[in-house]
Specification:
- It is a single chain.
- With 383 residues, this protein is of the alpha+beta class.
- It is built from nine helices and 17 strands.
- The chain has a four-stranded mixed β-sheet. The chain has a three-stranded mixed β-sheet with strand order 3-11-10.
- Strand 1 and strand 2 form a beta hairpin.
- The chain is elongated.
């Protein structure tokens, strides 16, 4: 079964900017969120599609690859965009490889962009972990603990790959270049040497514990400080916490990509927070006040003036999100929706009828003006 187009899933144009993509994602994610559609398998599947599409289109590099190659750009990976693998707790890890590596392996020599050749111990791959936090956690900040399965330095050989201090020697297969060439018709294809994995060196007596690689697969537990004010896509770098290098090579880095979970009440736009609040017809007509929740967990009182209409907004300054690396805060915007009463009892209906007879409809100037114009239009058409 072919996958749907990511732009179609989010309902945006291919030329849509980052802000438009993010806004479309928020709308779709809230529409199909499992909490709002309990037991609805179709909504659950659409929610997954929306998240998968946003994961690609929010990243400039992934989006460029998708625009050029479509879904095929990610089919060479290990289960997701850019070779991303799922990890514990909903995290994802990038162990390298994928479409770009295959392209360079085959065409690197022709384009002059071939990869590292026989330079000794290689630096470990950078890793990626996707961490989802709530809006409240993004506001306050969070000390998170993540578990990362990765390659760590072998303690038996201290990362050298040799048994009892055995030293590496020049690889006889590639003569230390780390690459081998093979002719296929009119083309000469250069690939990473299988004998030394591109290091240009081999070991006669490899370490029995790590089989000469100098590293072992191990799950690391790391503490991550998520600062207040993080937004969707914020990247946190943990230097040296990536994959250990081959045969004593330096480790890569770990990048934590922050995702903000959809909220049941609030919608975020940068440092501002929007909240839709229903108010009764009586409060809208006579005025009054309503209490609304805030992102920090307190209450705020909003004064509603006489004659408030649906769609009117009220700004609570300094009640929005914390701004990253700042003590300042955005605003909270309350948008009211006037609710028409339902299931009226006999007395309530009588009161409204009395209000109508007392000229209550004259208190709605917009409606009166609209129908006056309609009557004038009909008169002109009849004439």
């Amino acid at each position: 079964m072919s996958k749907r187009d990511f732009y179609e899933i989010l309902g945006v144009d291919r030329k849509a900017d980052e802000a438009a993509v993010k806004k479309a994602y928020r709308t779709k994610a809230m529409q199909f969120h499992p909490d709002r559609n309990p037991g609805d398998k179709t909504a659950e599947q659409k929610f997954k599609e929306v998240n998968e599409a946003f994961e690609v289109l929010k990243d400039a590099q992934k989006r460029a690859a998708y625009d050029q190659f479509g879904h095929a750009a990610f089919e060479q990976g290990a289960g997701g965009p850019g070779g991303v693998r799922p990890g514990p707790g909903g995290g994802e890890f990038n162990f390298g490889g994928g479409f770009a590596d295959i392209f360079e392996d085959i065409f690197g020599d022709i384009t002059g962009r071939g990869r590292r050749q026989g330079q000794g111990p290689a630096r470990g791959q950078d890793l990626r972990y996707d961490l989802e936090v709530t809006l409240e956690e993004a506001f306050k900040g969070k000390k998170a603990t993540v578990r990362v399965p990765t390659a760590v330095r072998c303690d038996a050989c201290q990362g050298s790959g040799g048994e009892n201090g055995a030293k590496p020697k020049t690889c006889p297969t590639c003569a230390g270049r780390g690459r081998v060439r093979a002719s296929q018709g009119f083309f000469t294809i250069e690939r990473t040497c299988a004998g030394c994995q591109g290091t240009g060196q081999t070991i006669d007596k490899p370490c029995k514990k790590c089989h000469g690689e100098g590293r072992l697969v191990h799950e690391k537990t790391l503490a991550v400080n998520v600062p207040p004010g993080v937004d969707e896509g914020t990247r946190i770098r943990l230097a040296g916490e990536g994959e250990a290098g081959l045969r004593g090579g330096p480790p890569g880095d770990l990048y934590i990509f922050v995702a903000i979970a959809p909220h049941d009440i609030f919608q975020r736009d940068g440092a501002n927070i929007y909240c839709a609040v229903p108010i009764s017809m009586v409060t809208a007509a006579l005025g009054g006040a309503v209490e609304v929740p805030t992102v920090e967990g307190t209450r705020a009182r909003v004064s509603i003036p006489t004659g408030t209409q649906t769609g009117e907004q009220f700004r609570l300054r300094g009640k929005g999100m914390t701004k990253l690396q700042s003590t300042l805060r955005g605003d909270m915007i309350i948008e009211v929706a006037v609710e028409t009463p339902t299931a009226l009892n006999a007395r309530q209906k009588q009161i409204l009828e009395e209000f109508k007879l007392a000229g209550g409809e004259d208190a709605s100037p917009k409606a009166k003006g609209f129908f006056t114009k309609v009557k004038e239009l009909w008169s002109e058409l009849k004439g």
